[in-house]
Amino acid sequence: MADHDVDLFVIGGGSGGVRAARIAAEHGARVMLAEEYRLGGTCVIRGCIPKKLLVYASRFRGEFEDAAGFGWTVPQWSFDWPTLIANKDTEIARLEKVYGTLLDKAGAKHVKSRAVLVDAHTVQLANGERVRAAHILVSTGGAPSFGDAIPGIEHAISSNEAFELPELPRRVLIQGGGYIAVEFAGIFAGLGAQVTLVYRGENILRGFDDDVRQHLRMDMEKRGIKVVTGMKIAAIEPVDNHFSVVCSNNIRHTADRVMFATGRRPNVAKLGLAEAGVKLAENGGIAVDDYSRTSVPNIFAVGDVTNRINLTPVAVREGHAFADTVFGGKPTKVDHSNVPTAVFSEPEIGTVGLTESQARERLAQTDVYKAMFRPLKATLSGRDTTVLMKLVVDGVSDRVVGCHVIGEGAAEIAQVAAIAVRMGATKADFDATMALHPTASEELVTMRKKTASYKRAAAE
Ligand SMILES: Cc1cc2nc3c(=O)[nH]c(=O)nc-3n(C[C@H](O)[C@H](O)[C@H](O)COP(=O)(O)OP(=O)(O)OC[C@H]3O[C@@H](n4cnc5c(N)ncnc54)[C@H](O)[C@@H]3O)c2cc1C
């Protein structure tokens, strides 16, 4: 490696890149990382963390409203968006520093610069400096995609800008049906905006369990969010200080902000990938094998840029596994099955494993257990809401292959349920577990009666 300046050059200082750089350096590698924007990447700067802080902020409204049934008189409350954004920015800046310190402590050099590949062993920084590296890791993440170019699209914002708005819009129109769209619908509505969500598909949250999708839509509508499916935005026209939005059915909507949450695409453009010989997969991400190795043996890629499962803990795991494989003498594959996931909508969703329809396609017999009930808190608050718990069980082995929860604390429940699902717990194991009372999640161990059972039709 004598003709190399470093053993590892990491392009992108987000969840995957920082973890990989840190662990590789701890294994003794000479590491350099380039980040063009801010250390911490999407998750820390304009993803999971600021989003969850905004979700917390938006939930106070419900708490204030629910308090009366418990005897509280809450004085007239009001909300100040600039305070929330300023406090969020302070926390994000603190976390960004922590990421820098973690790299420093591990001995990994980091620079603030865009970096691109010149060839399989050379990276060029924005100032023209070239660095020769034995190994290169591409961890450049993803970016919002606005879909078709429609008239006036330049007036739309993505989640990136939503975190930085100077004021809370009074009327928000969101296009999209994925988790970011429904989360921001809940955030803006909770903070006091009138929210309309339009989505071209049949129902929101494609890929999630159908009962959960239906339940969330119903509950969002109960909370005053207008959900319009089978429709998309056709044009955005600025009028005075707001927008007149034409939808595909020719109906016009008036909004102060139009947000597109129509998916994200891997950051692969103008990176020099083709020059270095790195191939892309059909889904637009960098094609990699089980060890995150690209089509060029010394170049690896982890996280959203590979478009496998685009979540922070997955990027972190992939980055760590890469460093252990290449620099730790411990070849490590990442298991991408049973990855728990949450949607911080209102109400919240937590899920792990197969949906009912996935199980019915894959398993010889699928048993379904479902419970829908009014949470205890709602009895005094009077809130019109219900919790849904659903277990999807392999009818032959009795293994619980899917757990889906919608209601308060669903994400926390899913994280723990994921351990049981991953370990192969059976429905009998769930039943043998003592309930913890009074909780909502006790339903997961007390659902005795099958709601439905399906046998897969024999292949013709
Ligand atoms: C609004 C939102 C909410 C989310 N919420 C959640 C959540 O609740 N839970 C969850 O698990 N995940 C969530 N995610 C997804 C999560 O943020 C990503 O999966 C995760 O950040 C991926 O990490 P990464 O390292 O692959 O990429 P990133 O974190 O995106 O990091 C890539 C970095 O590379 C830098 N970069 C790009 N090109 C170059 C270049 N040429 N040179 C130098 N630097 C470059 C970028 O500036 C960026 O900092 C959310 C995402 C968004 C947008």
Description:
- It is a single chain.
- The N and C termini lie far apart (58 Å).
- It is built from 13 helices and 22 strands.
- α1 (15-26) packs parallel to α4, α1 (15-26) packs parallel to α9 (312-327) and α3 (48-67) packs antiparallel against α4.
- The protein is globular, with a radius of gyration of 24 Å.
- Strands 1, 2, 3, 4, 5, 6 and 16 form a seven-stranded mixed sheet that branches.
- A hairpin with a 5-residue loop joins β20 and β21.
- With 460 residues, the protein is an alpha/beta fold.
- The structure holds flavin-adenine dinucleotide.
- The site of flavin-adenine dinucleotide (FAD) has 36 residues, from α1, β2, α2, α3 and β4.
Which kinds of small molecule does this entry bind, naming each only once? flavin-adenine dinucleotide
Largest sheet: 7 strands, mixed
Question: How would you state the average pLDDT, rounded?
Answer: 97
Helix tally?
A: 13
Number of strands: 22
Our Rg estimate from Cα atoms comes to 24 Å
Helix content: 25-40%
> Based on helices, strands and strand pairing, what is the structural class?
alpha/beta
